[in-house]
Amino acid sequence: MEISAEPPASYPGAGSIHILGYGMRLDDPELNGTLEKLQDARKDRNPQIIARLNKLGIALGLEELEREAGDGQPGRPHIAKLLVRKGIVRTIDEAFDRYLGNGKPAYVDKFRIESSQAIELINGAGGIPVLAHPCLLELESDQQLDEILREMMSMGLKGLEVYFSEHSPEQTRRYAELAQRCDLLMTGGTDFHGAFNRTSRWGRQRRLACPLRAVRETDRELTRHRRPAAFARISREEELPMGRPPVSPVETLIHYTFEDRRLLEEALRHSSFVNEVPDAGLRDNERLEFLGDAVLNLVVGHILLMRFAVLKEGDLSRMRANLVNEQQLAQLARGLCLGTAVKLGRGEAQSGGMKRIPSWPARWRR
Predict the structure, then answer these.
(1) How many C-beta atoms surround the C-beta of residue 77 within 10 A?
(2) What is the value of pTM for the model shown?
(3) Which architecture characterizes domain 2-189 according to CATH?
(4) CATH number for the segment(s) 249-364
(5) For the residues of 113-163, what is the DSSP string, one character each?
(6) In whole angstroms, what is the distance from residue 283 CA to residue 293 CA?
(7) Residue 160 to residues 4, 6, 122, 209, 218: CA-CA distances in angstroms?
(8) In which residue ranges of the chain is pLDDT below 70?
(9) What pLDDT shows up at residue 201?
(10) Contact predicate 187/218, CB 8 Å
């Protein structure tokens, strides 16, 4: 996620400062409430831009913009694409240079939240806040960037986008040194904002080379960052009405209470455990795993279909495969600390099966 925020006091320029959020909980109410306000403000901005274009003699309406955006959130990039389609400009860059960019005739400033609020929202949702593409800040020296980073670190900033498609090798080197000096995570990205921008691609671009170690360090930090918040939500077991047994740590972590607790027990029962008690009449979790894979593929497939209306079947299939697979689901399980909830047989446990997923604190072990 990328949030346009008000710059901190140490930033001498005007306009926005962009803060990236990695790995947030998608169901966080405070984060979603703020994003809805920002989206509403963006919708209010579009009519003002179109009105200014109309005054300049350019015929363009809101209905055209909504059709152009499709299922996406309409904004200046879609307006720029309409200007290209109508032959008013030749490229999207020209649309911004002549009409839509900061200080141009059709530019309308947008509502922004404070940098401290954006950082707090991302941290509060279990994510990692990162300062995006520092090369676009147009600073006079690295000393100014150092001052900005120090101020934002006091707000909770965790990383710097060192690897960016528009960074020169020299800039990348300097930003990496600065991140190391400030003990910040180093991330990378292409600033992808939709298929309309042909110079940018999702996760890959000719001039971008993000080392695998940066990805792994970010992943490890996300796991550490989420775990204390998860434990805080299990500070005590909550009693349920009507004689129900107490809520289990798993139910607290996933924000769901099972009507039939036997389903939860079966879902957490490994085949090695069942094999060691053959007379107990228990079933392992493999049948539910089969069903869960099908449900996840259906749900994720539907989300991708709705979100990416222009993509073809092959692209959608590859995206789904990258989301629903053993590696991704194991990573999610680690983030939720599900290790000691799974019932393993003695042999499997002794061979290190329990160590493959981080455990809960000792007080929650059953």
Answers:
(1) 19
(2) 0.56
(3) Orthogonal Bundle (1.10)
(4) 1.10.1520.10
(5) EEHHHHHHHHHHTT-EEEE--GGGG--S-HHHHHHHHHHHHHHT--EEEEE
(6) 18
(7) 15, 17, 15, 15, 11
(8) 12-15, 194-207, 225-247, 335, 340, 351-366
(9) 56
(10) yes
